[in-house]
Amino acid sequence: MQPGGADAIRVFLVDDHPTILWGLERLIETAEPAMEVVGQASSSSELFARVPAVNPDVIVLDLDLNGESGLDCLPKLSKQSAARVLVLTGISDPLLHEKAVMQGARGVVHKREAATIILRAIEKVHRGEIWLDRNSVGRILNALARGQRADPEADKIAALTPKERHIIAMLTTEKGARNKVIADKLHMSEHTLRNHLTTIYSKLQVSGRLELYLYATGHRLSEAL
């Protein structure tokens, strides 16, 4: 992390994958002296511990921080830092993207986008613009204009972490399979799977695998992968 020019956009990177952090830092180096990386974090605790000391202009935030939801960081970030938040995610879920903006993010860009698009999104967000696809912008503006709260079911679904959505999708695909079979396919212990299921049941307010299956198929969560 080399210092950039006086007017460089100060970027803080948040992702739980070291390879992604390394790649993003190399990408921003290609934009020097217009941008510079001033810090990195791989968890919410690191994020809140390090951001105040480096005073970034833009925080590039992943929504899945090793099982933690980046959405949960957004309200606190808006109080702790004046930095604008750009969500960089691998999740293609319009509801989740809109939820991020409603929680305080200034934009959402998918990880599959070209490097030039990611750099442009950082620049636009830094200038105070919103970076979202047009359909999402329209839906958010309509909801704000009507003064309506988000659909309660959409809020429940948006609270799921990517790992939890993956588990739900696997359960709907492997309907009737024992927990041990599901756990093996997910490369985790049966105990860990049970812990995840307890959290999922609580978030979606269902009482077991049968209700979860009905909920997931009814809300197309089987297509979350």
Summed up:
The chain has helices spanning 18-29, 44-54, 74-80, 94-102, 115-126, 134-146, 152-158, 162-173, 179-185, 190-204, 209-218, and strands spanning 9-14, 35-41, 58-61, 64-65, 68-69, 84-89, 107-110. It is an alpha/beta fold.
Describe the structure.
- It is built from eleven helices and seven strands.
- With 225 residues, the protein is of the alpha/beta class.
- It has two domains: 9-146, Response regulator (Rossmann fold), CATH 3.40.50; 160-223, Arc Repressor Mutant, subunit A.
- The strands form two sheets. Strands 2-1-3-6-7 form a five-stranded parallel β-sheet, sandwiched between helices. Strands 4-5 form a two-stranded antiparallel ribbon.
Topology readout:
Layout: E1 9-14, H1 18-29, E2 35-41, H2 44-54, E3 58-61, E4 64-65, E5 68-69, H3 74-80, E6 84-89, H4 94-102, E7 107-110, H5 115-126, H6 134-146, H7 152-158, H8 162-173, H9 179-185, H10 190-204, H11 209-218
Parallel strand pairs: 1-2, 1-3, 3-6, 6-7
Antiparallel strand pairs: 4-5
Helix pairs in contact: 4-6, 8-11, 9-10
The biggest sheet, with number of strands, parallel, antiparallel or mixed sense and barrel status, is:
5 strands, parallel
User: What is the CA-atom radius of gyration, in angstroms?
Assistant: 19 Å
- For CATH, the homologous superfamily of the largest domain is named as Response regulator
CATH class of the largest domain: Alpha Beta
Number of domains: 2
Secondary-structure element series: EHEHEEEHEHEHHHHHHH
CATH architecture of the largest domain: 3-Layer(aba) Sandwich
State the secondary-structure class: alpha/beta
Strand proportion: 5-15%
How would you describe the shape?
globular
First and last CA, distance: 35 Å
Helical percentage? 40-55%
Overall pLDDT level: 85
Q: What is CATH's topology name of the largest domain?
A: Rossmann fold
Biggest sheet, spatial arrangement of strands: 2-1-3-6-7
The low-confidence runs, each spanning 5 or more residues with pLDDT under 50, are none
Q: How many helices?
A: 11
Counting DSSP E segments of at least 2 residues, the number of strands comes to 7
